[in-house]
Amino acid sequence: MSTVDPVTPVLTKRWLSPRSWSIQTYEQLEGYTALRKALTATPEQIVQMVKDSGLRGRGGAGFPSGLKWSFMPPNFDKPHYLVINADEGEPGTCKDIPLMMADPHSLIEGCVIASYAMRANYCFIYVRGEVLHCIRRLNQAVAEAKAAGYLGKDILGSGYDLEIVVHAGAGAYICGEETALLDSLEGRRGQPRLKPPFPAAAGLYAAPTTVNNVETIASVPYIINGGAEWFRKMGTEKSPGPKIYSISGHVERPGQYEAPLGTTLRQLLEMAGGMKDGIPLKFWTPGGSSTPMFTAEHLDVPLDFEGAVEAGSILGTTAVMVFNETVSVPWAVMKWTQFYKHESCGKCTPCREGTYWLVQILERMVAGNGTEEDIDTLLDICDNVLGRSFCALGDGAVSPITSGIQYFRDEFLALCEKNRAKNRKPALAGAN
């Protein structure tokens, strides 16, 4: 691989076309050809094709999509639902909203194909409530698709019916967790559910449900048109396909960059014009603030599901947040922890109480009033939250703290030293 080997755009190929969001532009650029092809196959054949392609969930967990689809029971005693997680609340993540703004029909076509494969007649797109412009654009795209016969009754004369509902959430980070999203969609308070039962058995309205991320479903039409082998030519063996990396922070050109899975930060930085003002890199996150941070030593870690885990983090949503040497790690960790404390739903004690105390200690340390014991207390609280909270929010909340202390313990100690020096001064003054 050369230093930068960008793929021919797949997911983003229409983004720069004039009026890329309109059905006219979409149809000119192969739009809805995959749907026609899919409707000539059986639902089982489509599920098998998605399995063969190796497509994995782009929402953070990386679960094989075809396998997830195959969990839907074949019986029809209850309706089947497809729910699209378009909540995108992870700090630093900005891939799904730009995708829906620039190319909403790729998501809608993917929804129709996926719903057909899972024998679902209703699909819900749960969008973050703050992004009104995005909600309007999706509603417009749904109306266009319906008018053109790609949605509604008897789609393209196939006898298959599908309704898509765009639902605006109320802006809660917890609703990005799939079962909290389902509760919110049913009109209840967004809180995670106990699993099992898993959504595939009892999800929305206690009926079989599959929850998928926007980018995952938008990849489906390309797999149907290009084939599983073509899709596997991009990315790595275990993490195939293209990926939208959202790069923010201290880079010259922040934004969305499509690259094969397994691309490294060194390559992404080259695409993004390098570090802003030439100030060196200090630390970065591979997949948003809930993934353990990396340092300049990790520039060549392949950013795919396996590579990130092997290096001690997780791929998450590929929200690459880049920080230069001017940023204090304890300060950044404190700001992230304030976010998690604010967004905790309060359902379970480890997360509700843990995030509260983590914020108290970090704020005290950053203000210069910390002690060395505080570092041990922080790690002890993190240990009590990790793996013990009701959902993954607790695990995400402790990631910045544990990784921050792992790589930059000296910065936390320096804050404690500042406090000791401050407390020594009056004693010396009194001795004179």
From TrEMBL:
Pfam families: Complex1_51K, NADH_4Fe-4S, SLBB
Domain NADH-ubiquinone oxidoreductase 51kDa subunit iron-sulphur binding: 330-375
InterPro entries: ComplexI_51kDa_subunit, NADH-UbQ_OxRdtase_51kDa_CS, NADH-UbQ_OxRdtase_suF, Nuo51_FMN-bd, Nuo51_FMN-bd_sf, Nuop51_4Fe4S-bd, Nuop51_4Fe4S-bd_sf, Soluble_ligand-bd
Family annotation (SMART domains): NADH_4Fe-4S (SM00928)
Gene3D superfamilies: 3.10.20.600, 6.10.250.1450, NADH-ubiquinone oxidoreductase 51kDa subunit, NADH-ubiquinone oxidoreductase 51kDa subunit, iron-sulphur binding domain
SUPFAM superfamilies referenced in this protein's UniProt entry, alphabetically: Nqo1 FMN-binding domain-like (SSF142019), Nqo1 middle domain-like (SSF142984), Nqo1C-terminal domain-like (SSF140490)
EC number from the UniProt entry: 7.1.1.-
Top enzyme class: translocase
Reaction(s) this enzyme catalyzes, per UniProt: a quinone + NADH + 5 H(+)(in) = a quinol + NAD(+) + 4 H(+)(out)
Cofactor: [4Fe-4S] cluster; FMN
Chain's role: NDH-1 shuttles electrons from NADH, via FMN and iron-sulfur (Fe-S) centers, to quinones in the respiratory chain.
Family per record: Belongs to the complex I 51 kDa subunit family.
Protein name per its UniProtKB record: NADH-quinone oxidoreductase subunit F
Source organism of the structure: Kibdelosporangium banguiense
Lineage: Bacteria, Bacillati, Actinomycetota, Actinomycetes, Pseudonocardiales
